[in-house]
Design a protein that fits this description.
The structure is a homodimer.
Chain A lengths: L3 E3 L6 E5 L2 E8 L4 E7 L4 E5 L4 E15 L2 E5 L4 E4 L5 E16 L7
Antiparallel strand pairs in A: 2-3, 3-4, 4-9, 5-9, 6-7, 6-8, 6-9
């Protein structure tokens, strides 16, 4: 399997509606980095997926709900949760998240 | 398995010498986020590990060598490479990387 190197200028931003947009960044079959932009009050509805997820808050403020627990996070804060755990977020101040998945989100390609 | 949520203020910075320092951020058994700080001219020697790795450049400039190929990267650039692939970096301008591993780097705990 090859390495993937993606320069920021080559990332493609996909408008998801509702004040959110997604950029799929470097990935292999085992792992994928995704940057998600949120306008204030935009919502990532509570959902689950079979992928394990970690999230790094790049900017802004967010209220996450992870497995029924509310937590407010800002720049440099991180979350990590296992496969199948319900999670969602409300953007309190415009910002960006890095979501990292293992394995790759083939549904994002 | 539980979720892990780590606020930036609770991260512990470990000086690795040679102008580098590591903060282990949120992780589960399947995935770990690690922030690595580099002073200019600091080196991450070429090495391998059985974990798959993705890297997001938070700040600064770096020359990576991945599988024998040189590439210069800066903020927002990303790399992703499979288990066992040789890689290393030279810091060209002081900055920080996010390294994400699957599975977790138990050797960092």
């Amino acid at each position: 399997m090859d390495a993937m190197i993606l320069h920021a200028a080559d990332a493609v931003k996909k408008d998801l509606g509702g004040g959110t947009a997604r950029e799929v960044l470097a990935h292999t079959e085992q792992m994928m980095i995704v940057r998600v932009s949120f306008l204030r009050d935009a919502v990532g509805s509570i959902h689950t997926h079979p992928h394990c997820q970690s999230t790094y808050i790049l900017s802004g403020r967010f209220r996450f709900n992870v497995d029924g627990r509310d937590v407010e996070v800002g720049p440099g804060d991180t979350l990590s949760f296992p496969s199948g755990m319900p999670h969602g977020t409300l953007c309190l101040e415009e910002g960006q998240l890095l979501d990292i998945f293992t394995p790759r989100r083939d549904d994002f390609l």
